[in-house]
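Issue: ligand-bound run for 3-isopropylmalic acid - logging full I/O for the record.

Environment: standard queue, default settings, no custom constraints.

Inputs:
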Amino acid sequence: PRKFSIVCIPGDGIGVDITEAAVQVLGTLSDTFGTFTFQFTTLDWSSKNYRQRGYYAPEGGIEGLKKYDAIYFGAVGWPDVPDHISLWQMILPIRTTLNQYANVRPTRILPGTVSPLSACAADPSALDWVIVRENSEGEYSGHGGTTPSSAHAAHTVATEVSIFTRVGIARIVRFAFETALRRPRRTLTMVTKSNAQRHGMVLWDTVFYEVAREYDGRVAYDKMLVDAMTVRMVTRPQSLDTIVATNLHADILSDLAAALSGSIGIAPSSNLDPSRTYPSMFEPIHGSAPDIAGQGIANPIGAFWSAAEMVRWLAGARDGEGLGVESMVDAADCLMQAIANVTEQGVKTRDLGGKSGTKEVTDAVCAEIGKVYKVDK
Amino acid sequence: PRKFSIVCIPGDGIGVDITEAAVQVLGTLSDTFGTFTFQFTTLDWSSKNYRQRGYYAPEGGIEGLKKYDAIYFGAVGWPDVPDHISLWQMILPIRTTLNQYANVRPTRILPGTVSPLSACAADPSALDWVIVRENSEGEYSGHGGTTPSSAHAAHTVATEVSIFTRVGIARIVRFAFETALRRPRRTLTMVTKSNAQRHGMVLWDTVFYEVAREYDGRVAYDKMLVDAMTVRMVTRPQSLDTIVATNLHADILSDLAAALSGSIGIAPSSNLDPSRTYPSMFEPIHGSAPDIAGQGIANPIGAFWSAAEMVRWLAGARDGEGLGVESMVDAADCLMQAIANVTEQGVKTRDLGGKSGTKEVTDAVCAEIGKVYKVDK
Ligand SMILES: CC(C)[C@H](C(=O)O)[C@@H](O)C(=O)O
Ligand SMILES: CC(C)[C@H](C(=O)O)[C@@H](O)C(=O)O
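Outputs:
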C-alpha cells in the first residue's frame, strides 16, 4: 500500500476532539481500502503550551512541517491568549510559509440537515457552492501599526494595510477558473469592493478580467460587490456556483455560506499549495468553541469532510478531477457517501438538531464506510 | 409652520424614481400635519452629467450643501462610469466633508413582507436590529496606491490602507451605546476582525472596552468576529439588537440584514452628524439598479423609511428619543404606520412578491397618511 505521512495539529478546544475523530475515520478508510496507509504524527502546538512555554510552534517548527505529505489541523484559539497572538503564531504563518495560497471551501446541504433559508430547506440542491479564498495576502498581510504607542494617548492612530499583488491575484483567479471548469455549471462569480476601495480592489478587478479572457467561452463569469453578494447568497442561492474573493471577503462569505447550509460544524476547508511543492493543510472552518470543548458533543462532520478533501488531494485529484490514484479518489467518495448516509439517518450532533455525541457520529461514519465500500464493489 | 430646506440629490437610475416618490410623500405628510413645511431644492449631480461635464458636484458644491437643513439622497452609479470614480466624487466626500460619522441602519420585517429565513418568516419579531456604521474612516479612508503605475507590469503591487483613530472609534462606539440605551432591550454587539487584523482592529477592541465601562450596568454588550457574526445573524437573529461595526464590516452586514428582512428595497439609512453642526443625509441603502431604472417599478419603501428618519432627525429626535417638536415625531411615526399598512395590504413591488409599481405604492402610502392621521386625532 502507498504510505502517507500526516502531521496532525489538534490545537485547542474542540480541535482536539474532532482531530481524534478524523484520525479514527481515516484509519478505518485505509483499513477498508487496503491500498494506502497513513502514518500520523501529532504536534502539541496549543494555547495551553503557549502559556507554559511562550510559543506555539518551536523554533523551526513551521519549516519542519515541509517534510510531511499533508497537515491535518483542528482549531486554534483560547480565551486566555489574545486571538491575534494565537493566530499570528500558528495558523496564519503556516498558510503563508507553505505557500498555501488557495483556500477552497465547498458548501452544500447534506441529506438530513436543514438550511435556515426556506428556499433551501424546500430544495437543498439550490445551494451548491465552492468558495475559493485568496489565502496569502490582501487584508491578512499583517502590515500596519499603531501610534503613538501608549494605549492611552488620546490621538492614537492605527492602520491596517492590505497588500495585493498582480502575481497573487492572477494565480488565485486562475485557480478559481480551473475549479469552475471542473464543475458541471462552469460559472465563476468574482467578488470585490472596488467601488469604495479604489487601489488594491481596482487592481483585483483589472487582473481578474485579464485572466478571464483565457477562459472566455469555457467559463461564464460575473462580478459582485461584497455587500451585494451577501444579498444574492440569501435571495438567489441557485444563481451561484464557484466564487472567488479576497482573503477577508471570502472569510466572511464562507462563514455565511456554512451557516446557510445548516451548520458551521459541517464545513471543510483545504489550504492548498497548488504547485504541490509543500504540504497542503486541511481543517474544518469552525473554531475551537471553548463553550463545548472536551464534552464529547462537537460536530465532527466538518473534520471528516476536510479529511475527505485531504484524501482526494493526496490522490493528486480535486473534486471532479479524477486523476491519479483511482482507489484514493474512490476512498474520498466513499467517505463523503458515508457522511451523507449518517446525517440522513439522523445520527447528528446538537448543532444539526440531533442528539448524538462526537463518538456516536464517528462510529456511525466508520460503520458506513464498510457498507458503502461493499456496495460499490 | 416650521420651515425646513431640503436639498435632494436624486443621482442615477432608480435614485431618480424613488426621490420623486419620497418628495411626494413628504409633501403629503407636511400638508396633513400643517405644522412644518419642506422647501425642496434638487441638484442634478449624476453620472450623466459627469460624462458631459467631467464632474458630479461642481467646484464648492459639497461645501454648498452646508446651508440646507438636510440632504435627501437617491443613489449613485451607472455602468459607464467606474464605480470608484462616481462614489469618490459624490457620496463618500459628502459623508466625510459634512462630518456624518454615524450611519444608522435599522432593520425589521414589515407586515406583509416575508423573510427568506424560515425562523423569521414564522416569527417576524425575531429580527429587529439597528446597525450603527462608522462612516468616516477605517476601510473607506481612500489611502493606498498602486505601483508600478503601468497596468501591465508583471509585478504590480497595490495597497488599501485602513485608518482607525481613537477619536473616531470612541465617538461611534459612544453613539452606538446611546442608541442601544434608547432601545427596549439595551443590548449592543460590537463587531471586528481583531484576530486576523492585529493593528487597527485591536485598537477598536481596546477603545470599545474603555467606552463600554461608562455604560456598565446600563447596556449589555458583547463582541463578535465579523465572520461569526454572519452566522449569528442567520441562525440566532433574536439574540441581536443594536450592532456597531467598522465602515466596511457594517456595509456588508447591513446589506445582509436588509436581505434577511425581506428586501434590500425597504432598507433605510441615515448619515448623521450627531453634533448637528452640518446637515445630515438620508438615503435608502439600495443602489441605482440600472436594470430596472426608469420603468416605474422600483420599490420606494426604503426611500420612505429614510424620509421618516429624516423627519425624526429634523425634529431633534431619533428612534425612541421623543425630544423636540412633538408633531414632527408624530409625523415620522405616522409615515412608518402608513408604510406598514400599505405593505400589509399587499400593495407591494415585485421584489416583495407584489405586482404594484412605484406610483401605486406611493399613492397608497399618501392615502394611508391621511387615514392614520385621522385615527390618531
Ligand atoms: C482563525 C482565523 C484566523 C481564520 C481566518 O480568519 O482565516 C478563520 O476564521 C478561518 O476562516 O479559517
Ligand atoms: C455606494 C457605496 C459607496 C456604499 C458604501 O459602500 O458605503 C453603499 O454600499 C452603501 O452601503 O451605502
